[in-house]
Amino acid sequence: MLVWFRRDLRLSDHPALAHAVETGLDVIPVFILDDDDLEDWCPGAANRWWLHASLEALQRDLAGLGSRLILRRGQVHSVIASLVEATRASGVVWNRCYDPSTLERDAALKKSLHQAECRADSFQGSVLFEPWEIRTGSDSPYRVFTPFWRACRQKSVAAGIERPDQLRSLAGKWPVSDDLDSWNLQPSKPDWAGGLLETWKVGEAAARERLVAFLDVAGTSYKQDRDLPGIDGTSMLSPHLHFGEISPRQIWHAVEAREPNEGIETFLKEVGWREFCHQLLFHNPTLPDKNLKAEFDAMPWRDDPEGLARWQQGQTGYPLIDAGMRQLWQTGWMHNRVRMVVASFLTKHLLIDWRHGERWFWDTLVDADLASNSAGWQWVAGCGADAAPFFRIFNPMTQSRKFDAKGTYIRTWVPELAALSDHEIHEPWSAPPAELLAAGVALGVTYPEPCVDHATARQRALDAYKENVSSNKGG
Questions:
Q1: Partners of residue 3 on adjacent β-strands
Q2: Would you call 21 helix, strand, or coil by DSSP?
Q3: Residue ranges for the chain with pLDDT beneath 70
Q4: Residue 336 appears among annotated catalytic residues
Q5: 336, 395, 468, 472: the active-site residue
Q6: Neighbours of 108 (CB within 10 A)
Q7: Domain with CATH 3.40.50.620 in the chain
Q8: What CATH code is assigned to 127-157+203-283?
């Protein structure tokens, strides 16, 4: 039986794998690199770096069970058909994904396999509940998170499935497998992955270790610490979840096994937000590229290539914004509080279409998830489900002083400002010339002047919203 691995690169709590083992048949693990499908879940260079490392880890884990991972590159339908023919497999199993193009492709694959008299079964392995399962009292999908999460908390989550002790392997010759290195998923010239290597351990074992370490140390204070980018206060499990090295069900039960406290519950709510995003995408297939609130179609976004480039490169002249964008570039990840602030800056201070930011995150994040990325950007821009109002415009200096009071985060990622005082580092353009000189900061030379004036940009955004969007509500 073929077990088609996708965004579930683990051996424990893997329903499709468990089903294959229970049949008593030979188990043939397969991963297919379909370039069309890849664009929907692993499009960026950082994502592909992680995929390579995660597949290496899965290969090692399967070898420990006396098995192996067959790697093939090509169109899913033809690769599966050729493997079924070559191995005489009686069935193909996989865990479901819920983005629109994958759902359509999987339905067609099931139909073709059934026509060829080959069993095809899919299972729930990447979400807590099926996207169609949590409904309002009027039997419609939720558009507001809090009641959605309340409904989730009232339901029980099935127990996770234990990792198999061994896999029954082919008695005969294994199918030919591609060499992972030939897929060129890792950077070569230049090799920019040093920051990722320093930041991340990849694979199922690493995901479990990170979860336990987080719950042991940070879980109890998570409610407060999660907003402080200068400390290690978040789980950083998002890329492990995206690649399925750990399941949300495993996280749920690990949390439930702990002594209840505010930090633990707040963390579990973040897993619930991921769930909310996936059901949003399932019910709104255009979420990645179309405003959920139609009145935002009238927003006069600015065409500002220079502003976009300065934002992408961490050269806006606003230290907290620049710190976040540089952390993203070097590590493939950004602190969640800072993600909200940099997204607000792009869409409101620069008045640049949220889709430009969404695409940049899509290419640079190791945890770039279609549902969460799309819903998150629409939330900040004010055009999504349960979104923050557009007129809620983050003040970068206030956010910096509140959540990075001593400038620890800024000094880490914007070292040219490190010698400034804790007071002046958040707003270097207002520092006395003597302090700038003493700190070795020359505005416009060693660190840029602000690309926009905060008060002016804020008013411009409010005027654009009032004149073009607010007046169109309900139209």
A1: 29, 93
A2: helix
A3: 38-43, 188-191, 471-475
A4: yes
A5: 336
A6: 12
A7: 1-126
A8: 1.25.40.80
Q: Which of 301, 427, 429, 435 is catalytic?
A: 301
Specify whether 354 is catalytic: yes
Candidate list 273, 416, 429, 472, residue with the active-site label: 273
Q: Does the annotation mark 301 as catalytic?
A: yes
Residues of the chain within CATH 1.10.579.10 domain(s) are 294-472
In 10 A of CB 165, how many CB atoms?
Answer: 7
Topology annotation, domain 294-472: DNA Cyclobutane Dipyrimidine Photolyase, subunit A; domain 3 (1.10.579)
Catalytic: 284? no
Q: How far apart are CA 372 and CA 340, in angstroms?
A: 13
Per-residue pLDDT of 212-230, as tens digits, reads 999 988 777 898 899 999 9
Neighbour count for residue 185 (Cβ, 10 Å):
19
Q: What's the pLDDT score for residue 41? A: 59
Q: Identify the active-site residue in 270, 416, 427, 435.
A: 270
Give residue 219's pLDDT.
Answer: 75
pTM exceeding 0.90: yes
Written out in words, the top-level CATH class of the domain with range 1-126 is alpha beta
Q: Quick one: CA dihedral 71, 72, 73, 76, positive or negative?
A: negative
